[in-house]
Amino acid sequence: MIDANFPKFNEFAERLRDAEGRLLELLDRFSNVSVLVAGDLTLDEFLTGEVERISREAPVPIIRHESTRRVPGGGANAVYNLATLGAKVKVAGLVGDDEQGRALVEIFNNAGIDTSGIFIDGERPTVTKTRISAHARQSVTQQVIRVDRKSDALPSVSLQEKLGAYIEEEANSVEAIVCSDYGDGVLTPRVIEAALKHHRTVVDTQNNLTRYTGATLFTPNLPEAEKEVGYAIDSEEALEKAGVDLLDRTKAQYVLITRGGDGMSLFARSHPLETVPAFNRTDVFDVTGAGDTVVAALTLTLCAGGSPWEAVVLGNLAASIVVRQFGTATTTVEEMKAALTGVLENLDEGMRG
């Protein structure tokens, strides 16, 4: 539910209502968009079972396995979000010569994603995050431990060159390039240089935004923005200063700071600050991967001819859906249309209240 105390609530409500038809039209155009994602590909594993007893070998529970679920994580989640929203997606990245890498590629292939830009790195494992959860009889399931498989080594120079060359070869066939940087080594200077040659490059990175100087759009969350500018963003004045500083540092056309329950704020060189309130402030169960969902919907809206404000609205709408689910999640155009109807009804109630 949107906070009725949001500044200029009535003005925003009227603007969103007037934009309903246009937003629905943009959603219908998502299937016409082609995007390439260069990213750190991760496989998220979820193992669940029932606790039988405490082991005699160590004071740890023995868990009888019940199910395993595998979904794309990290930069792979950005790829998968674009695909579930109907886009034509190509991916540039690395997987290990292992069962986890083959599983991730299979998930992509089954979703119709072009995996010809995924190269095998025989020296490093596929980044895999395995979450083991357990429950006793008639009790809730809780995470017990997480096991990560990854390497801190950089990919070989030859693999970096292959990735860069693939991006350059495919750039003219896509309407945007998304850089999904989780710090796992795929986005080296060679790869970044190739991605920045495109006229529409969207960057989602947790650190060092200036590595991507000249990109079209950056999407830091509040802690990432604070880390980059070096001061707390704890007031409207500090927020506006941070936006200006980030635009200056990155030479970007746009910077979107996502602020959780306080919504999203878009900064542009030639336009005033635009803030869109959070569409879901109460039914939030897990924000894991929500940033990937925002980037996907935002990118597709811009490619479909939407304005930056329309892109933020639809990015916000998509995030409001996936945070209702546990773990990395995706959404669809039909779910977004239904959610838009719900948001508009909520706004009408807020205005009447």
Characterization of this structure:
There is one protein chain. The protein has helices at 9-18, 20-29, 75-84, 99-110, 157-170, 189-195, 222-229, 236-250, 290-303, 308-322, 333-352, and strands at residues 34-39, 41-54, 61-74, 88-96, 114-121, 127-135, 142-149, 176-181, 201-205, 217-218, 254-258, 264-268, 274-276. The chain is of the alpha/beta class and 353 residues long. Strand 6 (127-135) and strand 7 form a beta hairpin. Helix 1 crosses helix 11 (333-352) and helix 5 (157-170) runs parallel beside helix 6 (189-195). The longest helix is centred in the C-terminal third of the chain and has 20 residues, at 333-352. The two termini are 13 Å apart. The model is unreliable at 282-287 (pLDDT under 50).
Précis, in short:
The chain has eleven helices and 13 strands.
Salient structural properties:
13 strands, 353 residues, four-stranded mixed β-sheet, globular, nine-stranded mixed β-sheet, alpha/beta
Radius of gyration: 21 Å
Low-confidence parts, pLDDT < 50 over ≥5 residues?
282-287
Largest sheet: 9 strands, mixed
For this structure, the quaternary state is single chain
Structural class: alpha/beta
Order of helices and strands: HHEEEHEHEEEHEHEEHHEEEHHH
**N-to-C span:** 13 Å
- Number of E-state strands: 13
Mean pLDDT equals 90
Count of separate DSSP helical elements: 11
The geometry reads as globular
Strand order of the largest sheet: 5-4-1-8-9-10-11-12-13
Task: Quote the beta fraction.
Answer: 25-35%
- As a percent range, the share of helical residues equals 25-40%
